[in-house]
Amino acid sequence: MSFTHFDEEGRSRMVDVTAKTDTVREATAKGRITMKPETLKLILESRMEKGNVFEVARVAGIMAVKKTGDLIPMCHPLNVTAADVYFYPDTEKSEIQIEVTAKLTGKTGIEMEALTGVSVAALTIYDMCKAVDKGMVVSDIRLVRKSGGKSGTYVRDGE
């Protein structure tokens, strides 16, 4: 295996995907944000002063999927055709699971877009709630599934 974002002399480069065939590609990533039980209760009861935490974070996650090529240096700008952001609150663990699925038809994968969507959605939750809980923790951001392209389908064990 070699790193494709470096040339023979070790210089950074964007991978040339010109000759690749367009295929339908989809990726799902997950992550979590853990917080105080009181903070999660405020979110679930829609009592955060900055507004509806889930809807603002959902829009932020979708925007992040669309802007990944502007944020990650070697990512290609992609014509994303779908992005969904889901939140799964768990009161026993005092956390919110975040799941982002992104899709396109193109020459390169969309894994980074799904991962970026989860990251920004989690950071948006943090931003909207930091006035009451600066100790929140964003964690476990990972690719759980991807399909399409030359490498085919990937599913993370246990997901």
TrEMBL record:
Q: What is its EC number?
A: 4.6.1.17
Statement: the UniProt record of this protein carries the keyword Lyase: yes
Q: Gene3D superfamilies from the entry?
A: Molybdopterin cofactor biosynthesis C (MoaC) domain
- Give the coiled coil ranges: none
**This protein's pathway:** Cofactor biosynthesis; molybdopterin biosynthesis
GO BP: any one term = Mo-molybdopterin cofactor biosynthetic process
Please give the CDD domains that the UniProt record associates with this protein: MoaC_PE
Q: Which residues participate in substrate binding?
A: M74, C75, H76, M112, E113
Q: Which reaction does it catalyse?
A: (8S)-3',8-cyclo-7,8-dihydroguanosine 5'-triphosphate = cyclic pyranopterin phosphate + diphosphate
Q: How does it assemble?
A: Homohexamer; trimer of dimers.
Q: What's this protein's name?
A: Cyclic pyranopterin monophosphate synthase
Native organism is: Geovibrio thiophilus
For this protein's source organism, the top of the classification is: Bacteria, Pseudomonadati, Deferribacterota, Deferribacteres, Deferribacterales
The encoding gene is moaC
